[in-house]
Structures are given as C-alpha cells and as structure tokens.
Amino acid sequence: MDYTRAGVIITDPELDDHPIIFANRAFETMTGYMKEEIIGRNCRFLQGPDTEVEKVNEIRHSIREKKAVSVTIKNYRKNGEVFWNELHIDPVRDAENDKWYFIGIQKDVTEYEKAKEELKNSLDQVNRLSTPIVPIEEGVSVLPLIGDVTEERLENILSDLTSSISATKDHTLILDLSGLSDINEHVIHGIFNLSDLLRLLGTSLIITGISTRLAIKTVKMRIDLPQIRTFSTVKEAIQMR
Questions:
Q1: Pairing between strand 82-94 and 69-76?
Q2: C-alpha distances in angstroms, 145 versus 10, 103, 191, 225?
Q3: What is the pLDDT of residues 157-172, one digit of tens each?
Q4: What is the model's pTM?
Q5: Would you tell me which CATH number, out of the four given (3.40.30.10, 3.30.450.20, 3.90.1170.50, 3.40.50.720), belongs to the domain 7-109?
Q6: Among 65, 85, 162, 190, who pairs with 75 as Cys (CB 3.0-4.6 Å)?
Q7: How far apart are CA 139 and CA 135, in angstroms?
Q8: Which pLDDT tens digit goes with each residue over 137-154?
C-alpha cells in the first residue's frame, strides 16, 4: 500500500479513541505529517475551523453502524493549509480473529473543487450579466429579460433585485419582456412574485414588451394582468408613467 498514490490509513475501533494503526506514504505526503506523528492518533486531527460538522457526523454515524461511507470534506495539512479530501471509508472484518477495522482511502481533490467553485461563480456572473438592471433616470430602472428564463434564473433575479432596489431606492422598475425567447408558467408566476416583492419595497412595477403569446397564456391561466401597468415599449412607459 506504500506504492499507491491514494492516501491509505487503517484504524482500530476496539482501541481507545479509535486510533490510526497504519498510514502509507501517500497519506504522509498529502497531510504533511510524518508516520510517527500519525500512528496512534484519531483522524480528527485533520479537522479544523472550516471542516463541515454535518459531514463529520455522517462519518461518525457510519462508523457506529459499521457501514461504508464516502464524503468530500475539508481537512487541514500540518502547515495549516486547507485541502479537499475525497474520503472513502469501509469496515473490514478479520474473521480469523473476529476483529473489525476501518480502511480509509483518501484523495486530494482540491484543484477539482476549486475549478467547480470557479465555474459556479462564472455561471452566476453570466446570469447577472444576462439580466442587467439598468438605471435610466433618477428613481427608475429597467430590467430587460433576455433569452430563456428558468425557475433557477428567476430565483436569482428576485434575489439580486432585492439587494439592488434596497440600495438604489428606485420608485419604479420597468420589466421589459420583448427579448424573451419563450413565455412559460414560471415566467408568469415570477412576474407576480416580483410585483409582490417590489410592493413591499415601495417600488412600482411596469411591464413592457408583452407579446400576443403572453397575453393568451395569461388568459388561459386566469391571471389578471391589468393590476400591473403595461406598455408596448420602454420608451412609451417612460413617457406615459
């Protein structure tokens, strides 16, 4: 096991504090600890302030039940550096001696987790850029909806709007629908959720760019749009409001 690239440890649950009784070289390299600093210690020495409590509890529960468990958890190297540990723990029974051990296979997946987080941040940024809130005059902003609007994107819009309107104190928001590629129930319900939210913030909602297709869908869904002011274009809304 000293020649595998994965970190491997074996623990003995029958000894006091469930210590590590074997650690391979890859585990030493991964954690920065020497073997003499590892053997005899409980695995919790790798935990730190950002280690997820719920994942620690999941591991403890599986060990109590003698069940296999796989988690990706934040651990700490000897130098204090955080790393993401893809951890797989399996109970192993020594039938000859009627003893149980646990084998932990560990892999440093820090670069993968960082890349995943960067991708998420990039996608969040794309979502924000695809729904820009554009101030056009004091107290008035326009939010043009462009492309497809998913349920998740609507939730992000509502969240971003809350922060933006609270900061700008706009009294009017113009929601322009002319750039939407499709109108679905999520969009229609989202409009009314947005209207309710803005009302609580003291902001009026105006809708522009309503297509015939949207009007027909609202009728079929028995939704009453007249309670929200509507105009054909943003220009008309600015002139007539």
A1: antiparallel
A2: 56, 53, 11, 18
A3: 777 787 888 888 889 9
A4: 0.57
A5: 3.30.450.20
A6: 85
A7: 8
A8: 889 999 888 777 777 777
